[in-house]
């Protein structure tokens, strides 16, 4: 939609309009529990599980408001008492080479502020919303102090050298930005939009995160300008999204047969990897020196549900927690750094700690020693 709107502006024609869902024209009093359920099932298949839940929550909020409105005076909210299944928590790690490729792509397309935000995510573990409004409230050199918007908790942590280097470079860039844009002052936020010298709004930020990821996935050819690299990456990203169903069609998922389903997911991973590799080889003519930034296809993957997926900005918060855990930090230390509430310690253990392969391997070693002590040889 964003690409079509840009094209319409260039051509001077009417911008494409979003299509109304059928429920948008329904009389509110005609919507009951069956309609809520049908709409949820439709939205889940058409827009995804998380979006379906968000849409139901929005409708529910509208009905609750309309109950007390003198203009609407609606009856009971049909959402009350209904149960909707929730997807498993998304726990995805951004590997260090993937992180570096993503940051390098942001820098290459003249969006280093995106890389600044990524470093804040990796070395503070904060949510995207908090990073976009983050100001350093500490007077102590080498420390960061900021307040979380969701919990209201004050987080005070040491600044890692890698983060210090990135933020020092960011401050120099912001000074240059102030001169270039002839600004009276720049905002105190740490992440500043290069377009206007202001903090990012979430929509613009998500757009540039997505663009940088596409450039990282498909690479930056040495012969291209930054604009050409973006156009190429967005075109390939749109093409892959469009053909993904056809690409995966030969490998249907049998929800009843877990072994067959696992094989189908693996086959989908293979064909995705082959498609990405073939595209990179085609565009570079097989010449490794043709790249300014080599493609990092691992940022695009097939998830456990068998669907085409991408690494997200929010995955960097998960990555921070997993890295802290692998570094030997206990749960309370992780909470002190990332700002998770202490009550969520068990949740962190459930979602993160069981995924530490090194600790699991160490546990097997201890098990082996124990069974040897109890007489089992070989």
Compute the number of structural domains.
3
* Largest beta-sheet details: 2 strands, antiparallel
What is the class of the largest domain in the CATH system? Mainly Alpha
Q: Determine the structural class based on helices, strands and strand pairing.
A: mainly alpha
Strand-residue proportion = 5-15%
Number of discrete helical segments = 14
Runs in which pLDDT lies below 50 for 5 or more consecutive residues are none
Q: What topology, given as strand order, has the largest sheet?
A: 1-2
- Give the name of the CATH architecture of the largest domain: Orthogonal Bundle
* Terminal Cα span: 63 Å
Describe the structure.
The chain is mainly alpha-helical. The chain has three domains: 66 residues, no CATH class; 215 residues, Orthogonal Bundle (hpI Integrase, Chain A); 52 residues, no CATH class. The chain is built from 14 helices and six strands. The chain has a two-stranded antiparallel sheet with strand order 1-2. A hairpin with a 5-residue loop joins strand 5 and strand 6. Helix 2 runs antiparallel to helix 3, helix 5 runs antiparallel to helix 7 and helix 8 crosses helix 9. It is globular.
């Amino acid at each position: 939609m964003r690409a079509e709107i840009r094209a319409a502006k260039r051509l001077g024609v009417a911008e494409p309009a979003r299509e109304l869902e059928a429920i948008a024209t329904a009389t509110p009093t005609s919507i009951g529990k069956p309609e809520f359920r049908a709409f949820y099932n439709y939205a889940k298949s058409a827009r995804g599980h998380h979006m379906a839940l968000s849409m139901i929550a929005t409708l529910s909020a509208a009905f609750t408001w309309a109950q007390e409105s003198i203009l609407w005076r609606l009856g009971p909210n049909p959402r009350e008492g209904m149960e909707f299944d929730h997807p498993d928590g998304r726990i995805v790690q951004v590997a260090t080479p993937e992180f570096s490729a993503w940051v390098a792509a942001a820098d290459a397309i003249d969006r280093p502020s995106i890389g600044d935000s990524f470093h804040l995510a990796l070395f503070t573990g904060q949510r995207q919303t908090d990073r976009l409004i983050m100001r350093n409230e500490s007077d102590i050199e080498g420390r960061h102090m900021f307040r979380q918007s969701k919990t209201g908790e004050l987080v005070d942590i040491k600044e890692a050298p890698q983060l210090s280097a990135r933020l020092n470079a960011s401050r120099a860039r912001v000074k240059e930005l102030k001169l270039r844009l002839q600004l009276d002052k720049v905002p105190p936020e740490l992440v500043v939009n290069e377009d206007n010298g202001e903090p990012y709004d979430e929509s613009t930020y998500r757009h540039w995160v997505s663009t940088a990821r596409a450039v990282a996935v498909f690479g930056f050819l040495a012969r291209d300008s930054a604009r050409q690299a973006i156009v190429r990456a967005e075109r390939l990203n749109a093409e892959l999204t469009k053909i993904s169903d056809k690409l995966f069609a030969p490998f249907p998922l049998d929800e009843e047969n877990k072994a067959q389903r696992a094989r189908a997911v693996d086959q989908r991973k293979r064909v995705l990897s082959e498609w990405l590799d073939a595209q990179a080889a085609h565009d570079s003519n097989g010449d490794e020196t043709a790249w300014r930034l080599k493609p990092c296809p691992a940022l695009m993957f097939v998830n456990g549900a068998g669907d085409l997926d991408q690494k997200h900005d929010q995955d960097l918060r998960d990555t921070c927690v997993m890295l802290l855990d692998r570094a030997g930090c206990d749960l309370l230390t992780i909470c002190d750094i990332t700002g998770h509430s202490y009550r969520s310690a068990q949740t962190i253990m459930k979602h993160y700690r069981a995924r530490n392969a090194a600790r699991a391997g160490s546990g097997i070693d201890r098990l082996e020693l124990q069974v040897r002590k109890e007489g089992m040889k070989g």
